[in-house]
Specification:
Length: 77
C-alpha cells in the first residue's frame, strides 16, 4: 500500500474533511501517540497506519478497504 492509497481510503471510508481531521488529530498509542500524518512522515508503513487508525475508530473490516474490499498485502519485515 502506498501513501497515496492511504489518503484515497481516508477520503473514501471516512470522508474528505472528517478523515483528514482524524488523520491529523487522533493519537495512535501503538505508534507512540503519533497521529497518522506524523507516523507516515516518520516512515511507518501506510497499511500499518491505516489499520491502526481503523482499529482506533472501530471501523469494521467490511468497510475498511472501501469499495474494492481487497486488503493490500502486509509489508515485508
Amino acid at each position: 500500500m502506498t501513501e497515496r492509497d492511504f489518503w484515497e481510503l481516508v477520503e473514501e471510508v471516512l470522508g474528505r474533511t472528517y478523515g483528514r481531521s482524524m488523520a491529523c488529530d487522533v493519537a495512535l498509542p501503538e505508534l507512540d501517540d503519533m497521529s497518522s500524518v506524523e507516523a507516515l512522515a516518520a516512515g511507518e508503513e501506510p497499511r500499518v497506519v491505516w489499520n491502526l487508525l481503523c482499529d482506533h475508530l472501530q471501523i469494521p473490516d467490511s468497510r475498511r478497504w472501501g469499495r474494492d474490499h481487497v486488503a493490500p498485502p502486509m509489508p515485508a519485515k
